[in-house]
Amino acid sequence: MFFNHRRKGAIRQWLFIGLVAVLWCDVGGADDGSFGPFTRDLSDTEWGYQLLLDPTGFAPTEEVERFEVRLGDCSNDGDRDDCADSRERSELTERARSRKPVTGPQWYRWQVYFPEDYEVIYPARVVHAQFAQQRLGAAWVFEIGATGVLWVGNRLDEVGSYQALIDEDSLRGQWHDVVVQVDWSNKKGSLMVWVDGVRKAQFRGKTCSSCRVYFSYGIAREQLVRFNQAYPGTAVPTQVVYYTNMRRSRLVTGLKLADESSVALEGHESTPDPAVAAEETVTKTEATKSDATAETPLPTVVSETVDTPPISESVPTQKPPTDTISEDDRP
């Protein structure tokens, strides 16, 4: 009994050490596509977040994550007060955050689905994914604009620069595959975004300031007072969005799904699975050795370095269309 008691105590101690290691790990170091753990942020409604069987019928996974925000879904945690700040949200945010700056290249991937009845609530703002910095707020946002377009926006820039990712006419009723490559730097970095394999946006320059970056996704509604002022007496509509396959890796190969041989991205050379490439190399080498008259080839080396597509020094940055809305009201 004494031995069992001591053994249980040792197990509890190691579990505690393991938990601390997870919570204080250097995030972003994995190459296998793992991402998380995530936790709900300032939202505890029963309908706000659900993991359920795919209701769309054609998601890339059997289960998907469902986010919903209704009128009045705001909360506070003592330091932040969404109700007072004219915000509503249902988000998942990274629980394990780095104590030191995140640097160098990182790859991210997810699939997102906007239902047919998804309503735009501009001039309020709706952010569906964001790279934020601890204690500094959002650095990069994926946001719905005035015309129902999904944009990626740079909030490090005081003016704010945006590039369109998904047009309104193709936004709803289908799953979209989003891939992001970021070189995190407070001086010379870069960010590129592909949607359904097509490169849609690219930025060059500072991609973070403190660079203690973490990721959140779901629905975050901001500046709701603007909607109330623009449409007095009209209730802000309920919004629903679905996500699946959240992945992060230092290598693009880490984003590969089970049924993919590689990740096909426009303007980026496809990198094969290293295990497959190594097997093919061995096969070719053995076949060459069997031919006495053939020259012995040098072994193929699979590099972990991912070539970055060239980015022009002056990339045109689009501004989101605001129709008759003033320039200060852009996403």
Model description:
With 331 residues, the protein is α+β, with helices and mostly antiparallel strands. The chain has a single domain, classed as Jelly Rolls (Sandwich). Helix content is 15%, strand content 32%. The strands form two sheets. Strands 1-4-13-6-7-8-9 form a seven-stranded antiparallel sheet.
Q: Just name the CATH architecture.
A: Sandwich
Mean pLDDT, all residues: 79
* Total individual domains: 1
* Distance linking N and C termini: 65 Å
Structural class: alpha+beta
CATH domain topology: Jelly Rolls
Number of helices: 4
Give the overall shape.
globular
Salient structural properties:
331 residues; alpha+beta; Jelly Rolls; seven-stranded antiparallel β-sheet; 4 helices; 14 strands; 15% helix; disordered N terminus
Indicate the topology.
Elements: H1 2-23, E1 38-41, E2 49-53, E3 63-69, E4 88-94, E5 104-113, E6 125-133, E7 137-144, E8 150-154, E9 161-166, H2 168-171, E10 175-184, E11 189-195, E12 198-205, E13 213-222, H3 224-230, E14 239-249, H4 274-289
Antiparallel strand pairs: 1-4, 2-3, 3-14, 4-13, 5-10, 5-14, 6-7, 6-13, 7-8, 8-9, 10-11, 11-12
In short:
This protein has 4 helices and 14 strands. With 331 residues, the protein is an alpha+beta fold.
